[in-house]
Design brief:
With 475 residues, the chain is α+β, with helices and mostly antiparallel strands. The protein has helices at residues 32-37, 40-49, 108-112, 115-125, 140-156, 162-166, 184-190, 215-221, 237-254, 275-309, 386-390, 406-412, 415-424, 434-439, 448-458; strands spanning 7-10, 13-16, 26-28, 59-66, 73-79, 85-87, 98-107, 203-212, 227-234, 269-271, 317-322, 324-333, 336-345, 348-349, 368-371, 379-384, 395-396, 428-430, 461-474.
């Protein structure tokens, strides 16, 4: 990206001034080095998002921003409920893709003593890969129960405990789901996919806490250097993709009838108060519940595997948070508390201390922000800040962000070579596809450490800990 197009607000905040059809400015939260490496398409997409009806304050991009469908991945935008729009492209196809992290109480030496066997057993029990299916088979009415109840449904089925729900975004169940707005095709795509990772950048990792940045926050979150955590990254699988595909087509066709001129077709949207807007929100909320239930089932499967190796280990949930959603939230704008519809696409909610949506035990310190890395680098745990609540609508980055396309990565890297190289570094990868490993090669991504450092310095969220992988089950 050319920096002469931007006005520097600070070392980690850059402004795109209003021009043309932009209704608000753009704000990019990143270091100069990250900005220089960003595709110019990010600039174009932020400008386009800033032109949408009813947008409030600014169109934002996180430090890991890269080109996406309509909105940049790493894009954040909030809309007035009366004048604004909801955009399927502002949520994405993998609705409610997110990360949950579990404590184990174990140390590195515990894992290394059984590393290969544990990796094999996890790979055997955790379905992963394109089109992967699990042992759970649900009828259409059973799928409706999932879409209505989310992780709370999964807990009622025996896939976890009530304590898990208290550490899950929306307490495990997104209100306002409308099952009738989810097509039969979407439900059919999902009825055999509950409890599966899927493909792409989804994974289950066994990780070691390699570095503590904030000792006080780490203690409050139960994080110790050398401790072992488990992170699960996945979303709403085929159902979410089907919902996104269907509604984006409808939004593109009807935009003109609502008086909306789309800067590009991929920004297809509908007025929030329109029938189509409300239908999409109902379907999207159902897909959020699908994703929450999916990660809850995967947690149960993981616990069963670990119980076979470490009967004394209690895999308590640290937190579960999504990064592809549109949520109705209250934010203070120019001293006035307003209800807004906040789109986060490849961006993580990051509520600060005192926020009423957080469980009481987390409220004094802020919401855990879980940042996924690549299978050969590191992941991070951050915490929401009071300052961040005033910036990008309480949002932070969600990962490293791609630096090359999957097709480019396939041409440049060999999956088997990557797997062997990482094994030599003590990281065991298990995947049904060496092609998938090549697509997700560590060098196909930006430096997650640099991304997280920028988020910290920008004030979006505070760094707490860095986690390095020991085992990765890759889709």
């Amino acid at each position: 990206m050319e920096l002469n197009l931007l006005q520097k607000e600070s070392d980690f905040c850059w402004r795109i001034e209003r021009s043309g059809e932009m209704r608000v400015p753009g704000l990019l939260y990143a270091s100069e080095a990250l900005l220089r490496d960003m595709d110019h398409k990010v600039y174009e997409q932020v400008v386009n998002v800033a032109a949408l009806p009813g947008i409030v304050t600014a169109a934002c991009a996180m430090p890991d921003a890269h080109w996406g469908y309509g909105f940049p991945i790493g894009g954040v935008a909030a809309f007035d409920p009366e004048e604004g729009v909801v955009s399927g492209g502002g949520v994405g196809f993998d609705i409610s893709c997110g990360v949950r992290t579990l404590h184990t109480g174990l140390r590195r030496q515990d894992i290394m003593a059984v590393q290969a066997d544990l990796a094999d057993r996890l790979f055997e029990r955790i379905p992963a890969g394109l089109g992967s299916t699990g042992r759970i088979r649900l009828s259409i009415s059973g799928m409706d129960e999932v879409l209505r109840g989310g992780a709370a449904w999964a807990v009622r089925q025996g896939y976890g405990t009530d304590a898990d729900l208290s550490r899950t975004e929306e307490y495990g169940c997104m209100a306002g789901a409308e099952l009738e707005q989810v097509s039969l095709q979407a439900k059919k795509r999902q009825h055999r996919e509950m409890g599966t990772l899927g493909s792409g950048n989804h994974y289950l990792e066994v990780q070691e806490v390699a570095e503590i940045y904030d000792a006080g926050l780490a203690v409050a979150l139960g994080i110790q250097a050398g401790g072992i955590k488990i992170s699960i990254h996945c979303g709403s699988r085929g159902l979410g993709h089907q919902v996104g595909t269907e509604f984006l087509k409808k939004m593109a066709v009807t935009a003109a009838s609502h008086g909306i001129r789309l800067p590009e077709r991929e920004l297809a949207c509908a007025p929030i108060r329109s029938t189509l807007g409300q239908q999409y929100l109902g379907a999207m909320r159902a897909a959020i519940n699908c994703a929450l239930a999916n990660r809850q089932i995967l947690t149960h499967l993981t616990r069963k595997v670990f119980a076979g190796f470490f009967p004394e280990a209690e895999l308590e949930l640290l937190y579960d948070v999504s990064h592809n959603t549109c949520k109705e939230e209250t934010h203070e704008i120019d001293g006035v508390t307003r209800t807004l519809y906040v789109h986060r696409k490849g961006a993580t909610r990051a509520f600060g201390p005192g926020h009423p949506a957080l469980p009481e035990d987390l409220r004094p310190i802020g919401q855990p922000v879980l940042i996924g890395g690549t299978m050969g680098t590191a992941s991070y745990i951050l915490c929401g800040t009071a300052e961040g609540m005033r910036l990008a609508f309480s949002s932070a980055c969600h990962g490293a962000g791609r630096s090359m396309s999957r097709r480019q990565a396939q041409r440049q890297f060999n999956g088997r070579d990557i797997q062997d190289d990482l094994a030599g570094r003590g990281i065991l990868i298990r995947s049904p596809s060496t092609r998938g490993i090549a697509e997700e090669a560590p060098h196909a991504y930006k430096d997650a450490g640099e991304v997280v450092e920028a988020a910290d310095h920008a004030g979006l969220a505070r760094r707490v800990a860095r986690l390095v992988p020991l085992i990765c089950i890759k889709g």
